[in-house]
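idk why but the lab printer keeps eating my pages so im just putting this in chat instead. protein + S-adenosylmethionine:
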Amino acid sequence: MSFCVLIIAVACSSLQGSQRLERAASGDTRRSRFRTATIGPAIFTASSHLALIAGASRLVSPHDHVLEIGSQLGEVTRCLADKASSVHGVDMERELQGKSGRTASFRSHSSPEEAGLTGVRFTLLDPWDTRALLQATGADEEPTFAVIDLNQIVGNDLPLEALALARQLGKTFPSLTNVIIKSGALDKLQRQLTTLPELRAEKGRAPPPSWLPRIVATRGVADYRAAALEMMGAWAAEGRQGVRVLEVGCHTGTSTAMMHARALAGGGDGYAVGVDVSHSIIERAAGLHPEVRRFGVADAWDVCALQKAMPEGESPHLLLLDVGGVSSSHGVLDALALVRLVCSTFKGTLEAVVVKSHGLHAAARALKPVGWGGATEREGS
Ligand SMILES: C[S@@+](CC[C@H](N)C(=O)[O-])C[C@H]1O[C@@H](n2cnc3c(N)ncnc32)[C@H](O)[C@@H]1O
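predcted complex ->
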């Protein structure tokens, strides 16, 4: 009899697991009130261990079921256990300390019991393994909050990895409303990334330090052009002259011509250059806008070609990025990779990148510093 009950229970749980897997794969989103279909959970970035603990103790509520990824069964887990309804810690299985060559540290405890933690479950698994994560987290305790220590699981601090993992968790668990991720690299990106309304209001996040280019994520061509003009308008108001603009993915040159006119109006030999991957399109652009300083053929991913497209020895202050593949909502990681590439290529002069990317725009809205006002402020954003 008890054997039958066990078989039925196992069958039910594996059915629930596969239903949840299908639901996650199909993008079914039983969203709670803090997340939206486009931006997913709020992603709070913490640049340090202390910021992570302070953020967790402020943002986690007694109703939350917390999934702690890269759990050390230490201070952070204890703080979460004090605040939340339940905590499920997961961590990678590691062999010997230092053997893998990764910088991730090892837990001083192997189980919650040994650490003296109550109300905490712990599983060894690979957090990139969605199936294992879904199977380990019970359907009755779907996580509402995730806390990630990126360094523990990746062994390094990489913004693309950090964003990819946070997004993957958001897709896997529709119940997830908030994620705190300890990653200095993602925190830095969060400070650079903004949207046109935020740029106009300069609210929501502090401007990046002057040595980091600002990244303005936009949706649609009107938003893209308005953001570029906003940036140039702000510089003109400061009396800046000689502003150099490069548009990558200029098509027939309408935006490049607009920027060129604005740069000329600013004085001091300002200009715009447009490049596109298509020869025939560039011929049309040059025919339509002979006043523009220069049009050239270049692939966005070919940094040498981008450098050559600029007049000898010159490098842009403002870069506009509008190329196929990065503008959709699925192109967020490509968009970010390309933005990082151009930022490195034109380091020293580049002050702002305006990029047309639905995905990066959603990420800009999802990412907040952990010290920011809190989850409830996201409503209606
Ligand atoms: C939406 S259109 C650009 C519109 C233009 N920015 C404007 O504001 O009028 C996208 C352009 O990106 C170009 N493109 C696509 N992939 C590219 C790549 N890898 N490098 C450079 N240009 C690319 C296409 O040829 C196309 O002309």
